[in-house]
Amino acid sequence: LVRFPAAVYRARWWWISTAVLFLLVTLAIGWWIADNPDVQSQLLRPDEVKQLVSQDFASYYRSNPAGSFAFKVWTNNAFLTAMVIASGGLLGLPIPYLLFSNAANVGGVGGFMAAHGRLDLFFGLILPHGMLELTALFVGAGVGLRLGWTIIAPGDQTRTVAVGREGRAAISVALGLIVVLAISGAIEAFVTPSPLPTWARIGIGIGAWASFMAYVFTLGRRAALGGETGDLDSASRGDVRPVSIS
After folding, report:
1. What is the model's pLDDT at position 71?
2. For 187-236, how does the pLDDT look when each residue is reduced to its tens digit (9 = 90+)?
3. How far apart are CA 50 and CA 63, in angstroms?
4. CA pair distance 157, 243, nearest whole angstrom
5. Roughly what angle, to the nearest 10 degrees, separates helices 119-152 and 66-86?
6. Rounded to an integer, what distance in angstroms lies between the CA atom of residue 88 and that of residue 184?
7. Kindly report the CA angle at 221 between 217 and 225, in degrees rounded to 5?
8. How far is CA 231 from CA 52, 164, 168, 227, 234, in A?
9. Which of 2, 48, 100, 131 could bond to 209 as cystine, CB 3.0-4.6 Å?
């Protein structure tokens, strides 16, 4: 109720900027594929396109029992999010590549679906779980980038102290996102392929996403204004020797 939302809130401009760039790149890729039949033919054969549009995209969400599918999705997404957070230790350099790979996948499928008039199916299946799932990925990437920047520019503390503080806060975020991704995985397994009307499935996704946003921007803002950084308390992290920054 304190550390995780505070750490996410403090990194908000990093992950909001990441989200905007990701969505712009995804839209550009989707538009480029949908508007260029030559590009489509270079990427997939006509029979593969037909298979993707008419069967594979929708059947993916029904290909496994819901329980095992939810676990698979959860662990895959948790691993990817952990990778982008841990990439902060490498100055965040791997993060653009990891995000671009995902943007290319989403934009590519969306482009093929749009070219064949199936955007309604695309958004009807990807929005219920995708809003919360991608937000968790953006948060992880933003926190990783913030950690990488702290290594470069530690501010008014020594690099060791500043990186230690941000690293521990990043671990708090990683642990919190496990729960967030478990929720999005459950939605993907049980709601996305369900017989509910499209508006109801998307509504559930919007509700889950809005709840997370409210959680971060109420509890997180309150905790951050109270001086919480997402780091461990002094009793847990131990004493820090005073230093002078010249």
Report:
1. 83
2. 999 999 999 999 999 999 999 999 999 999 999 999 999 989 888 776 56
3. 18
4. 8
5. 30
6. 24
7. 170
8. 45, 9, 5, 11, 9
9. 131
pLDDT of residue 123: 95
| Residue 72: predicted pLDDT | 85
Q: What is the 3-state secondary structure (H, E, C) of the chain?
A: CCHHHHHHHHCHHHHHHHHHHHHHHHHHHHHHHHCCHHHHHHHCCHHHHHHHHHHHHHHHHHCCCHHHHHHHHHHHHHHHHHHHHHHHHHCCCCHHHHHHHHHHHHHHHHHHHHHCCCHHHHHHHHHHHHHHHHHHHHHHHHHHHHHHHHHHCCCCCCHHHHHHHHHHHHHHHHHHHHHHHHHHHHHHHHHCCCCCCHHHHHHHHHHHHHHHHHHHHHHHHHHHHCCCCCCCCHHHHCCCCCCCCC
How far, in Å, CA of 142 to CA of 84, rounded? 9
pTM: 0.92
Q: How many CB atoms lie within 10 A of CB 203?
A: 15
Q: Which two tokens stand for residue 158?
A: 């020594």
Residue among 230, 185, 170 at smallest CA distance from 74: 185
For 122-154, the pLDDT digits (tens) are 999 999 999 999 999 999 999 999 999 999 999
Sequence-separated (6 or more) residues with CB below 8 Å from residue 203: none
- Contact (Cβ atoms closer than 8 angstroms) between residue 187 and residue 132: yes
